[in-house]
Amino acid sequence: PFEVLVVGGGPAGASAAIYAARKGLRTGIVADKFGGQVAETVGIENFISVKATEGPKLVANLEAHVHEYDVDIMNNQRALSLKSGELFELELENGAVLRSKTVLLATGARWREMNVPGEQEYRGSGVAYCPHCDGPLFKGKRVAVIGGGNSGIEAAIDLANIVEHVTVLEFDKSLRADEVLQRKAKSMGNIDIITEAMTTEVTGDGKRVNGLNYTDRATGENHHVELAGIFVQIGLVPNSEWLKDTIDMTARGEIIVDAKGETSVPGIFAAGDVTNSAYKQIIIAMGSGATASLGAFDYLIRHNVD
Ligand code: FAD
Prior knowledge:
Elements: E1 2-7, H1 11-22, E2 27-31, E3 43-44, E4 53-54, H2 55-67, E5 71-75, E6 79-83, E7 88-92, E8 97-105, E9 109-111, E10 127-128, H3 131-134, E11 142-146, H4 150-160, E12 165-169, H5 179-187, E13 191-194, E14 197-204, E15 209-216, E16 222-226, E17 229-232, E18 236-238, E19 268-270, H6 282-303
Parallel strand pairs: 1-2, 1-8, 2-5, 8-19, 10-17, 11-12, 11-17, 12-13
Antiparallel strand pairs: 3-4, 6-7, 7-8, 9-18, 14-15, 15-16
Bound molecules: flavin-adenine dinucleotide (FAD).
GO molecular function: oxidoreductase activity
Protein name: Alkyl hydroperoxide reductase subunit F
Subunit structure: Homodimer.
């Protein structure tokens, strides 16, 4: 069996695996897709000591660094369930069961979807979740941003520099974004903000998005907006559904961890965006991966389960 089995190959998982291997622990890492959200990121300018890099470059560096150590890397493998017992048992989608003395969950998060007709049909054909990645595809066109939180308004400001026009649709009466971001957005000539707007449908011509329908929640009236693209910015969902009955989570599905990264089940640790950490960033995910890994080491020397 493994001594530390890491689930997730983003910055948190990579960092955890390296810390565990450096303690001489038998370490495995299972990842649905190595690199995680970083693989989808274009520019990264806040990974301290590296002035500027790109997602795919950072992923290649993460992978190379993990390869420096004796870590069993199982890429393109999805974990389905986790059972406690003498040893923890992690069941994979391919039917394999991996056993380990400790488990470190670093399965990250994904964009929240609107769940309206047309969204899935036009995903990648006008419906987008990543302004950094897909913004340039809409150069000179009209787009919408769904969501008036920090990520939505940041996206609108970012997109307004590239596209012809941005319409922000916010479900609530007011925007939740920081005042400074709202001021910036309002100062840009090509951003319109509509509040109390419930998006009801993504429309298209069968090939690509051509607009959206929304209901004005104040008046009940339905409206259509013509657009080439829709950026959905309504939050992050932790990839923790498969662990619902295993460990304690917040109401939003974030795994609750203590100062050592330990969950409600002794021997199961968690790190990165899947946890209730205050902010979700690469450097934070890496730090918490290191913390949880050292927490697992601490657990192993105390429990000496051989
Ligand atoms: P993730 O990166 O989400 O990795 C999760 C890993 O778990 C993946 O390998 C995934 O395949 C795997 N996984 C999930 N479920 C399973 C399962 N059931 N079985 C097996 N494996 C599973 N942060 C910054 O600091 N700077 C930035 O400039 C920046 N820009 C960003 C831009 C975009 C477009 C996005 C999406 C995020 C950005 N972030 C940025 C945030 C940053 O990417 C995340 O905070 C960070 O990647 C979180 O790392 P993580 O390891 O916790 O999770």
